[in-house]
Amino acid sequence: MTAETRYASSPAAAQRWNTEETRNELLIDKLFEKDNVRLVYSHYDRFITGGIMPVAGPVKLEAPDQLKAVYFLERRELGIINVGGAGTVTVDGEVFEIGYKEALYVGRGKQEVLFSSKDAGSPAKFYLNSTPAHKEFPTRHVTRKDAEVVTLGALETSNHRTINKLIVSTVLPTCQLQMGMTELKTGSVWNTMPAHTHDRRMEVYFYFEVPQGQSVCHFWGQPQETRHIWMQNEQAVISPPWSVHSGAGTSNYTFIWGMAGENLDYGDMDVCAIPDLR
């Protein structure tokens, strides 16, 4: 296991970051490593972002030192979305087959979570989000058919996209974790535009299906002073509650959003008018 800690910062402190410091603070540049668990523990809402790519055999999710817990889900809930080949997740002996772009929610109190790939030549890539939990909810497999699907934007504004709400309160009960996946249509590049902030929640974006040789420019910062981070395929970025979180790619792409915080209201956001961004 590789587990690192990222600390929370104020807008005033972030103003002084150069490019390298910005990337060190917010960018998660590597999530998938053969037969290893990679985790980033953020002090924003105690949110954990991670990746597991099992190849040689099953990989067990253990509690990192940061949690001071006997097992990972002793005081947490977990959301999983597979962005690789077919795989299985075994939760206290119950096996779930998780296909590409399918999700699994695992509630607090489950003691053993094992990750496996169906084919070592095309391994599963399990993207993880985890948050503290105050209550136990049932483990549930969420397929594309189970998702709440919304289509927004238009090709004329370069933001025609499909939002798949996978682990949200309208699909299944959770304590505070929410996860979904937004797919940009061909010819569209902008996500989450108009941009917004929400002081009640933090968020993490994970970009994938970025074509070879293409990139995504992720925008962050306060609406009156935005900044950017250039990102590559299968990288994630932490968004503080006071920051916008939006992006534009040199091609269409897909990204997973994960949120945690004070409430489960998907529409709780403070929208920034496009002409007011600076």
Automatic annotation (TrEMBL):
InterPro entries: KduI, KduI/IolB_isomerase, KduI_N, RmlC-like_jellyroll, RmlC_Cupin_sf. GO terms for molecular function: 4-deoxy-L-threo-5-hexosulose-uronate ketol-isomerase activity; zinc ion binding. This is 4-deoxy-L-threo-5-hexosulose-uronate ketol-isomerase. The keyword Metal-binding applies. It is an enzyme of class 5 (isomerase). NCBIfam families: PRK00924.1. Keywords: Isomerase, Metal-binding, Zinc. Pfam families: KduI. The gene is kduI. Belongs to the KduI family. It comes from Chitinophaga oryziterrae. GO terms for biological process: D-galacturonate catabolic process; D-glucuronate catabolic process; pectin catabolic process. SUPFAM superfamilies: RmlC-like cupins.
